[in-house]
Write a structure and sequence with these properties.
Elements: E1 13-15, E2 18-20, E3 27-31, E4 38-43, H1 47-66, H2 69-85, H3 87-98, H4 102-122, E5 129-131, E6 139-146, E7 149-153, H5 161-173, E8 177-180, H6 186-198, E9 206-208, H7 213-222, E10 226-232, H8 235-246, E11 251-255, E12 260-264, H9 270-282, E13 292-298, H10 302-314, H11 333-348, E14 352-355, E15 370-373, H12 380-383, E16 390-396, H13 399-407, E17 414-418, H14 422-431, E18 436-439, E19 458-459, H15 464-469, E20 472-479
Parallel strand pairs: 7-8, 7-10, 8-9, 10-11, 12-13, 12-17, 13-16, 15-16, 17-18
Antiparallel strand pairs: 1-2, 3-4, 5-6, 6-20, 11-19, 14-15
The protein binds nicotinamide-adenine-dinucleotide (NAD) and the ligand N[C@@H](CC=O)C(=O)O.
InterPro entries: Ald_DH/histidinol_DH, Ald_DH_C, Ald_DH_CS_CYS, Ald_DH_CS_GLU, Ald_DH_N, Aldehyde_DH_dom, Aldehyde_DH_Superfamily
EC number: 1.2.1.-
Family: Belongs to the aldehyde dehydrogenase family.
C-alpha cells in the first residue's frame, strides 16, 4: 500500500503495546472490494491470545483511571491531532479496504477524530452530586467511576468513526479498551492503534484484536473481567452478544440495524426533497444505518417525486472509490446477491423497477443504483434493513397513515420528515417511534448528539454527554456520623 507514512499500514494485532502475530502465524487475507485483490493480511489470534488482551487491559486499568481527567485528555487530544496530520493516509487505507469514495473517507476521518476531541473535553464534566440527607448527621452523594475493561465490536461500513465514537468516550472516562474490528476492515483500526501509541496512550490501554468473530466474541463476552460490551452492526449479532454476555451481566451498548422512513409531505419543494432523498439513500452505497430505507411520499406529489428522484439518481457516478465517484463497491459479493434478491422479491409483488441496469456494473461487487416504486409493507425492501443501493418509494394519503406505516417495524433508529408545516412536523416527530428524527435536513449526526435507537435498533447512546455515561458507573456514598450546622 502506497502511503506517506508506511508504518500506518499494520497487519498484526496490537496487544499490551506489542504488535502481535497469530500463534503459528495464522492470518487471513483482506481484500479490496473494488477489484478483489489482496491488500494484506490480518492476524487470526487464538483463544489464549484474546484472553491475554483482557489481562493486558485489566493490568493497565488502575494507572489509566488514576490519571487526572486533564492528563487523559492531553493524550486524547494528541491522538486527535495525529488523525488530522495523517488524514490522507488514513483515508487511503479506508477507501482501499472499505470501498467508499476517497472524499467520503476523508469526511469519516474528520467525523471520527471529532469524537476523540469532544470526549477529551466532556470528561471534565463527569460530575457526581450531593443529596440532601434524610439521615441525621450524614452526608450523601454520588461519584462517577469508570466501568472497567470495555470491549468494542465495530462494523465495516464506518471502519474508523465507529471505533472512536466508542473508544473516545471509554478512554476519556478512564476505561481501558479492546477493539475487535470487522474482519473486512481491520487496517483502519490498526492504524488507529499505531497513532494511539504515538499519542502516548500507555500499553494495554488501547488494544486491537483480530480473529474469527465468533471465537473472539465468545471469549470476550464470557470473561468476567470485561465489564462493558459495545457493538455496532446487525441486530442478529447484537442479540448473540447479549446472550453471550448474560452470564457475567455486562453493561451493553448496542447500535444495531435501522429501517429509516424518509417521509415527504405534499407541502415541500418536490425537487429539493427528491435531491435530499437521493443523498440520504445512497450515502456509503446505501450501507449505512441512517440510509433512507423506505421513502414514503404523499400521493399528491408522488409521480413528480419519482420522476425527480430518478433524474437525480441517474447523475450518480459508480466506480472504484479511488476515482472521482459517488458510489463505490459493496463490501462483498454476498451483499450484491442480497441486493438482487430485494429487487426480485419486490418486482414479483408488483413494485415498478424504474431504474437500475446491472449490466453497467463495473465489477463483481458493484450494484448500480436502483429504484423501485410502489413498494408495500409485504416486500423485503420495505421490511428489512436493505444496506444496498436499492431505493424503494411508497405512497401515503394522510399523516396518520404515514406515521403508522413508519412505525410498523421492529426497528427504531432514525427517521426523516420533510415538510414546511411546523405543527405537522411536531406531531409527526412526537409520534414516530425512533431514537432520532431529522427534519428537513440530512445532517443529524456529530460528536455532541446522543446517537442511538429504540426497539430492536439498540440500547444506550453514543456521542453526547449520554455517550460518556455508557462508560461510567454511579457510586452512591453515605458518610455517617458527620455532624454539621445544617440539617441536611
Ligand atoms: N448498524 C450498522 O452500522 C451496521 C454495520 C454493519 C452491518 N450491519 C448489518 O449487517 C447486515 C449485513 O452485514 P453482514 O453480512 O456483515 O452482517 P453480519 O451480521 O454477519 O456481521 C455484521 C458485523 O458483525 C460482526 N460479527 C459477526 N459475527 C460476530 C460475532 N459472533 N461476534 C462479534 N461480531 C460479529 C462481523 O465481523 C461484521 O462486522 C446489514 O444488513 C446490516 O443490517 C449494520
Ligand atoms: N452513519 C452512521 C453510522 C452507522 O452506520 C453515523 O453517522 O454515525
Amino acid at each position: 500500500m502506497q502511503l506517506n507514512d508506511p508504518r500506518l499500514f499494520r497487519q498484526l494485532a496490537y496487544i499490551d503495546g506489542r504488535w502481535t502475530a497469530g500463534n503459528s502465524n495464522r492470518d487471513e487475507a483482506v481484500l479490496d472490494p473494488a477489484n478483489g485483490e489482496t491488500l494484506g493480511h490480518c492476524a487470526l489470534l487464538d483463544a489464549e491470545q484474546i484472553t491475554e488482551s483482557v489481562t493486558a487491559a485489566e493490568g493497565a486499568f488502575d494507572a489509566w483511571r488514576a490519571l487526572t481527567v486533564d492528563e487523559r485528555g492531553a493524550r486524547l487530544k494528541a491522538w486527535y491531532r495525529l488523525l488530522h496530520e495523517h488524514k490522507e493516509d488514513l483515508a487511503r487505507i479506508m477507501t482501499l479496504e472499505q470501498g467508499k469514495p476517497l472524499h467520503d473517507a476523508r469526511g469519516e476521518i474528520d467525523y471520527g477524530a471529532s469524537f476523540i476531541e469532544w470526549f477529551a473535553e466532556e470528561a471534565r464534566r463527569a460530575y457526581g452530586m450531593t443529596i440532601p440527607s434524610h439521615i441525621p448527621d450524614a452526608m450523601l452523594g454520588t461519584v462517577k467511576e469508570p466501568v472497567g475493561v470495555s470491549v468494542m465490536f465495530t462494523p465495516w461500513n464506518f471502519p474508523l468513526a465507529m471505533i472512536t465514537r466508542k473508544a473516545g468516550a471509554a478512554l476519556a472516562a478512564g476505561c481501558p479498551v479492546i477493539v475487535k474490528p470487522a474482519n473486512e476492515t481491520p487496517f483502519s483500526a490498526l492504524a488507529l492503534a499505531e497513532l494511539a501509541e504515538r499519542a502516548g496512550i500507555p500499553a494495554g490501554v488501547f488494544n486491537v484484536v483480530t480473529g474469527d468473530p465468533a471465537t473472539v466474541s465468545e471469549i470476550l463476552c464470557g470473561d468476567n473481567r470485561v465489564r462493558s460490551v459495545s457493538f455496532t452492526g446487525s441486530t442478529r449479532v447484537g442479540k448473540l452478544l447479549i446472550r453471550q454476555s448474560a452470564g457475567s451481566v455486562k453493561r451493553m451498548s448496542l447500535e444495531l440495524g435501522g429501517n429509516a422512513p424518509f417521509i415527504v409531505c405534499e407541502d415541500v419543494d418536490v425537487d429539493w426533497a427528491a435531491r435530499e432523498a437521493v443523498a440520504a439513500k445512497f450515502q456509503t452505497a446505501g450501507q449505512d444505518c441512517l440510509a433512507a430505507n423506505r421513502i414514503l411520499v404523499h400521493r399528491r406529489i408522488y409521480e413528480r417525486f419519482v420522476e425527480r428522484f430518478t433524474a437525480h439518481m441517474k447523475a450518480l457516478k459508480v466506480g472504484s472509490g479511488m476515482m472521482e465517484v459517488d458510489i463505490g463497491p459493496l463490501i462483498h459479493t454476498r451483499a450484491v446477491g442480497m441486493a438482487r434478491e430485494l429487487v426480485e422479491d419486490a418486482t414479483s409483488q408488483g413494485a415498478r423497477l424504474i431504474h437500475g441496469d446491472q449490466s453497467m456494473a463495473p465489477g463483481a461487487n458493484f450494484f448500480m443504483p436502483t429504484l423501485l416504486a410502489d413498494i408495500t409493507p409485504g416486500m423485503k425492501v420495505f421490511r428489512e434493513e436493505n444496506f444496498s443501493p436499492v431505493a424503494g418509494i411508497g405512497v401515503f394519503d394522510s399523516d396518520e397513515e404515514v406515521v403508522e406505516l413508519a412505525n410498523d417495524t421492529e426497528y427504531g433508529l432514525a427517521a426523516y420528515i420533510y415538510s414546511d408545516d411546523v405543527r405537522r412536523i411536531w406531531k409527526m416527530m412526537r409520534g414516530l417511534d425512533y431514537g432520532m428524527v431529522s427534519v428537513n435536513t440530512l445532517k443529524m449526526t456529530g460528536a455532541p448528539i446522543p446517537f442511538g435507537g429504540i426497539k430492536q435498533s439498540g440500547l444506550g447512546r453514543e456521542g453526547g454527554a449520554q455517550g460518556l455515561e455508557e462508560y461510567l458507573d454511579t457510586k452512591y456514598f453515605c458518610l455517617g456520623n458527620m455532624p454539621s450546622p445544617s440539617g441536611s
